[in-house]
Amino acid sequence: HVDAAPVSTDTQAMMYLARFGYLDPALQNPSSGALISGDSVRRAIIDFQSFAGLNQTGILDPETSTWMSKPRCGVRDRVGAGSSARRKR
Amino acid sequence: YALQGSRWRVKQLTYSITKYPSALKTADVDRELAKAFQVWEDVTELTFVHLRTGKVHIEIRFESGEHGDGDAFDGTGGTLAHAYFPIYGGDAHFDESETWTINSYKGTNLFQVAAHEFGHSLGLSHSDVRSALMAPFYRGYEPNFKLDNDDVVAIQQLYGKSGNVATTTETSSRPLPPGRATTPRVSFDDGSNGRGNAELCGSEGKIDTMFTGPDNKAYVFKGEKYWKLEAEAVAPGYPRSIRADWEGLPGNIDAAFTWTNGRTYFFKGSRYWRYTNFELDADYPKDLSEGFAGVPSNIDTALVWSGNGKIYFFKGSQYWRFDPQQKPPIKSTYPKDISNWEGLPNSLDAAFQFTNGYSYFFKNGQYWRFNDRSFKVDEGQPGYPRPAGKWWFGCDEVNFKTRPGGSKLFVDRPHAND
Description:
The structure holds 2 protein chains of 2 kinds.
Chain A: H1 10-19, H2 38-52, H3 62-68, E1 72-73
Chain B: E1 12-19, H1 26-41, E2 47-50, E3 58-63, E4 79-83, E5 92-95, E6 100-101, E7 108-109, H2 110-122, H3 149-159, E8 209-212, E9 218-222, E10 225-228, E11 240-241, H4 242-245, E12 255-258, E13 263-268, E14 271-276, E15 279-280, E16 286-287, H5 288-291, E17 301-304, E18 311-315, E19 318-322, E20 336-337, E21 350-353, E22 359-363, E23 366-371, E24 376-377, E25 386-387, H6 388-392, E26 400-402, E27 408-410
Parallel strand pairs in B: 1-2, 1-3, 3-5, 6-7
Antiparallel strand pairs in B: 4-5, 8-9, 9-10, 10-11, 12-13, 13-14, 14-15, 14-16, 17-18, 18-19, 19-20, 21-22, 22-23, 23-24, 23-25, 26-27
Helix pairs in contact in B: 1-2
């Protein structure tokens, strides 16, 4: 498989976490200038690691990056309500 | 497992594939997606019906990049597909840029991804059980795919258990009729090849009617008996007695079809019978004039045509179109000549829409597949008509059969349904 968007950098990881519901979706747009605490990112990574069955380190380690780069379904892992829910246009 | 929070209120769901992938054959896509729906059908009370046109519950499309829903695909790899939960419409989109494959370790397995996406279409969110189908990550081709118990429990929370399957998908076919498993049935041993299909084979294989039931299985009725069809032959234990299994229904049926409401209608003479989930509805049979005004008595066959989802009745050299949403349901311009259906013979025995979305017509042991786009009998290799026994009923045809006209028709070894 070709990884269309391999996740190796912190920014890519944050965008991944935002896209699939682990972080505020506003972060999906880097130009938004939103600030987020390191603790929030750590919690989001732990949340993802838990979901993927990985060691829950809170660190973007190689195994976590590998799993973030895997081919996958485009539906969010964490499905919110209200404004963060998927909407059909 | 995780439930999103919405589900369908009906047990029979329709779907259509409005945009096919460019690299696979349409029939292959139809088959793989039907298999993907079957995964969920096997463990719930749900049934899925493939329609070619008209309004459906779940629309399926293969798209590239931005495709109108604000959730663009990203080329090969990455995101493979996405689907909407029931409350958002249930539609499923697949990334056309992926190398979709069938039964291959190369590329991305269409069946597995489709089964996952349809889980979303039915109301399942992603599971954190890595072995579950509803886990978000693609695991590669699994030749012996089995639904995980996590998935089974999840879907049964939403739609209940299948009548005969508890918590596994290892059983691929269900006894029939569902819900009547304890009812004594009469089965027949025809003493031929042990498959119970002898009466359906050869040029003597004339049948009364054929239809797709509410369980999405094909059924054949002939005389006092009926057969359920599996992938390549009749199901074990068939034929069975019509009178024993179908309360109130006589033998020698003229025609039958299952309507989009999941109800099955049988026609004989000037009367019709209606069944819901294989149970006769109250106050039936009724006279044709009570529900099918304008339809003649003693019809040859009827079908819900895959081309437009409307009901067609055939008799002799004529046909009638019946649209329940119109008043009157049959326009004054009917009947019309069957010759409008290019390539079909008059005086048909049976016709029905199969689960692959095609309409098939039967007469004197032969069958024709109709091409809804060109509006004529399909071309194929071999061409139509084909021997129904070999292609539908698993008959061990001899290598040469004599046509009524005396010419020889070569018949290959039977191997698969059309």
